Amino acid sequence: MSFEQSETDRAMACMLMAGTIEAVQYKPPRVRVRSGDWVSSFLPWFSVAAGGVRHWRPPTVGEQAMVFSVSGQPEQGIVLAGLWTDQFPANDDRENITAMDWQDGARMEYDHEAHKLKMLLPPEGHAMLTIGGTTLEMKAGGVTLTNGTVKVVGGDVIADGVSLKQHKHTEQGDFAETSSAH
To answer: In this protein, which residues make up the domain named Gp5/Type VI secretion system Vgr protein OB-fold (predicted)?
Structure first.
């Protein structure tokens, strides 16, 4: 076999290499991949989106990945991570579910048949939604609204089983009568 033929064979073998994530670098986003005894230099990984819309999800050490090297030179490759393995199996098996799970037990799941979004957080977790200067924060044991107003339209507010609409103070009589007198 000639040198040119062996170099062509080597380049073709390196165009697509399976391996596992060996190390993760966050700034700039790069990973090392192990394939057998070979370990890559730090290479960029694919993202779901990396333009005007961006998605950040660093690969995990041990996660299965593929190195794509169009030139056949793996040191110039790019990495696609996110292949299911026994170590990291699929997190659902239902056709109508899109789900994301995190290491601490948090999960976000959307059922597009039932039109239901479900978010689960561990007991020590909390969720925050901020729009402008208004923040809604939820954690085990309570909900806090900062710089905002709660408006109930066509419903009732019930706290400890007491209805705001039905609640009366004996010294005030009917709330509607008291409030209309002012």
So the answer is: 18-84
